[in-house]
Amino acid sequence: MCEGTREDGSIIESNDPQWFKLNSIAKQSKDHPEEWLKQSEVYGDLFQNTLFVNSFTHWLQELYEKGVEQTINKYISN
After folding, report:
1. What distance, in Å, lies between the first and last C-alpha atoms of the chain?
2. Which of 2, 18, 31, 67 could form a disulfide with 26 if both were Cys (CB 3.0 to 4.6 A apart)?
3. Cα–Cα distance between 68 and 62 in angstroms, integer?
4. What's residue 78's pLDDT?
5. SS3 (DSSP) at 78
């Protein structure tokens, strides 16, 4: 959502004091998911945890490729 568009393609307007920073990082994260986790003020040192980074990367890519509903269904069926 911080990327600025919903799954249906509709635009999400700036809605957070940190919007421009989050939006920029979210756009980078589409191709490089680990960039989102580099926000140490939010995630601390999770970026250093390979298992977490791999899982985050997998599920974020699933969201972009298959959408929310299919990704959630796949996640809860595992």
Report:
1. 24
2. 2
3. 8
4. 82
5. coil
Domain spans in the chain, listed from the N-terminal domain onward: 19-77
Model confidence, pTM: 0.84
Q: Are 5 and 11 in contact (CB under 8 A)?
A: yes
DSSP state of 1: -
Decide: helix, strand or coil at residue 5: strand
SS3 assignment, position 77: helix
- Rounded to whole angstroms, the Cα distance separating 66 from 32 reads 17
Residues in the chain: 78
Provide the residue-wise pLDDT of the chain in tens; the chain has 78 residues: 688 999 899 999 998 999 999 999 999 999 999 999 999 999 999 999 999 999 999 999 999 999 999 999 999 998
